[in-house]
Inverse folding.
């Protein structure tokens, strides 16, 4: 699992590459939290175009980061999930708090 | 339904084995010519069941074994995932969406809900020192 961070306008973009499961969750949480608390941005975009796998552990990871962003009054967005990841987002209600763009 | 092929996989309950376990089951399932979506569904459900063993049955730090037994029949795969950990005292409660006993705060409690959404049948038996989750995926 790798995480690449860059910026688009005023937004920070988190590109998740690989498989997000119980094994990789801690690494992803640490890197995301460090960026969220130290970087300057107005909104966060989770780019999932290269996330090849995610199970419900990933739901917890995303909700945790959403809460952290919300504390800073920053919006969270998601883009390009695979059909299976999209299904997990839909069934868990994640799209009610994180808009798909 | 007659079984046309079967396999057993024994792994240690370690998170680094999750990816291996779901990939092995998916590779075995390919013999039934499933769609890509069916393969991905099964991989996700297997990952949920294996995560439950590692995180809940054995409390993560504890050593333990997970046995994954797969049976193929003409139109479906049955995957039995067994652990010998602490067991599930209230299966009905454990299967409710958003219910979790995870103590670290960021567990979604959606494991069984995902399994049910991604498989055609999910059943759980927890007795006499072992817990088995049975997943059925049709093609």
């Amino acid at each position: 699992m790798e995480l690449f961070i860059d910026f688009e306008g005023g937004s920070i973009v988190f590109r998740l590459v690989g498989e997000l499961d119980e094994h990789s969750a801690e690494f992803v949480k640490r890197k995301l939290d460090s960026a969220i608390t130290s970087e300057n941005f107005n909104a966060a975009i989770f780019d999932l175009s290269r996330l090849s796998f995610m199970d419900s552990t990933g739901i917890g990871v995303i909700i945790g980061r959403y809460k952290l962003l919300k504390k800073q009054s920053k919006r969270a967005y998601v883009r390009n999930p695979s059909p299976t990841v999209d299904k997990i987002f839909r069934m868990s209600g994640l799209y009610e708090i994180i808009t798909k763009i | 339904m007659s079984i046309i092929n079967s396999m057993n996989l024994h792994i240690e309950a370690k998170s680094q084995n999750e990816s291996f376990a779901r990939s092995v089951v998916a590779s075995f399932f390919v013999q039934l010519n499933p769609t890509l979506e069916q393969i991905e569904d099964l991989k996700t459900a297997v990952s949920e069941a294996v995560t439950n063993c590692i995180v809940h049955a054995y409390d993560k730090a504890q050593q333990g074994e997970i046995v994954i037994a797969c049976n193929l029949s003409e139109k479906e795969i049955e995957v039995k995932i067994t652990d010998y950990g602490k067991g599930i005292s209230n299966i009905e409660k454990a299967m409710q969406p958003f219910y979790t006993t995870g103590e670290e705060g960021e567990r979604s409690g959606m494991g069984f809900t995902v399994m049910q959404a991604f498989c055609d049948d999910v059943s759980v038996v927890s007795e006499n020192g072992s817990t088995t989750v049975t997943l059925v995926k049709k093609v």
